[in-house]
């Protein structure tokens, strides 16, 4: 990319209508090149966009003193530009005795902190430093592990969570362009040396698989991102049709129920998304579901007899009643 990355950030913000005049934006800044560039770009654009910026930093405690130094660096940068700063240190004990991976726990804790901080600071937008490289890696990781249309569309440019918009202004920029930009201007940033180790699946994808694939397509990251954007149009169509279908859930002391007649008449693609929504609301761990689970759901809905049930990872059960599907956590209902 020959274009100024800051100009690309502005184009992305406008293309996805990420920011409006008067918005307050909490930047998730780790100290690495992507988040430091995010800080630099929005610091430079804030007057043009008529926005206010704030900085949030979390010390995950995974790298000991190194991560503490990163947080000190972010604090120094924030104070140098007189940007309000909020910080949290995670207790390493949270990573033990948990069915989630270290990466998944860290991500959950990070977003919980960002959303709580946004509420506390009365901020309506959160900006993260995800690049097109992160987007492509996420898509490929999901394809390798097995995914659905929802997974292949990757990282959304904008999403809503708990009345806060999470935006990705760097989602169309390559990391190499960011690093070149920072180096040319002598803008300091921190390096997380664990990124070069293959102890995490994402690092293996980033350090080994993507470089290998780039031998056959030097623009593999862009190609995966383009695929996701194309499929997102299909996904958005399905979501709109799901909304039009009017299929809803009812709640009772037993759990969450879906009317069988309402769901059976829907096309298979819609049935799957309706079931996904019900599972999510009932507390299922969607990431633990396999392709076989999704196939079983469809047969269960169409052919299963009254009283039949499916038990899912995380202690969730689906029970087929006469006219409905009942979703509940084991222990809440005797069957």
From TrEMBL:
Protein family according to the UniProt entry: Belongs to the tRNA(Ile)-lysidine synthase family.
Segments forming domain tRNA(Ile)-lysidine/2-thiocytidine synthase N-terminal: 24-207
GO BP annotation list: tRNA modification
The protein's name: tRNA(Ile)-lysidine synthase
Domains (record comment): The N-terminal region contains the highly conserved SGGXDS motif, predicted to be a P-loop motif involved in ATP binding.
Presence of keyword Cytoplasm: yes
Cellular component annotations (GO), alphabetically ordered: cytoplasm
Enzyme Commission number: 6.3.4.19
GO molecular function per UniProt: ATP binding; tRNA(Ile)-lysidine synthase activity
Subcellular location: Cytoplasm
SUPFAM superfamilies found in the cross-reference section: Adenine nucleotide alpha hydrolases-like, MesJ substrate recognition domain-like
Binding site for ATP: 30-35
Enzyme class, spelled out: ligase
């Amino acid at each position: 990319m020959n274009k100024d990355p800051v100009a690309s950030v502005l184009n992305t913000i406008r293309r996805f209508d990420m920011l409006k005049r008067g918005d307050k934006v909490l930047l998730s800044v780790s100290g690495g090149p992507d988040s430091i560039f995010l800080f630099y770009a929005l610091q430079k654009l804030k007057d043009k966009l008529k926005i206010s910026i704030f900085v949030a930093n979390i010390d995950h405690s995974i790298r000991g003193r190194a991560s503490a130094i990163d947080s000190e660096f972010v604090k120094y940068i924030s104070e140098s530009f007189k940007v309000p700063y909020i910080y949290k240190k995670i207790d390493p004990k949270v990573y033990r005795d948990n069915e989630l991976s270290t990466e998944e726990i860290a991500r959950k804790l990070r977003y919980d902190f960002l959303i709580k901080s946004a509420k506390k600071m009365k901020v309506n937008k959160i900006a993260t430093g995800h690049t097109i490289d992160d987007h492509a890696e996420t898509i490929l990781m999901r394809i390798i592990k097995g995914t659905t249309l929802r997974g292949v569309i990757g990282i959304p440019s904008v999403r809503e969570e708990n009345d806060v918009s999470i935006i990705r202004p760097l989602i169309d920029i390559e990391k190499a362009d960011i690093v070149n930009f920072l180096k040319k201007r002598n803008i300091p940033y921190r390096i997380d040396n664990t990124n070069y180790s293959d102890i995490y699946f994402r690092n293996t994808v980033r350090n080994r698989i993507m470089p290998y694939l780039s031998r056959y397509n030097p623009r593999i990251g862009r190609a995966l991102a383009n695929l996701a954007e194309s499929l997102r149009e299909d996904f958005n169509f399905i979501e709109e049709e799901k909304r039009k279908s009017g299929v809803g859930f009812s709640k009772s002391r037993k759990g969450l129920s879906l009317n069988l007649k309402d769901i059976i008449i829907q096309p298979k693609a819609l049935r799957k998304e309706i079931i996904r929504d019900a599972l999510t609301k009932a507390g299922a761990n969607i990431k633990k579901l396999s392709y076989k689970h999704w196939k079983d759901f469809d047969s269960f809905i169409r052919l299963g007899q009254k009283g039949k049930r499916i038990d899912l990872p995380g202690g969730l059960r689906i029970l087929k009643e006469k006219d409905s599907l009942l979703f509940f956590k084991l222990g809440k209902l005797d069957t």
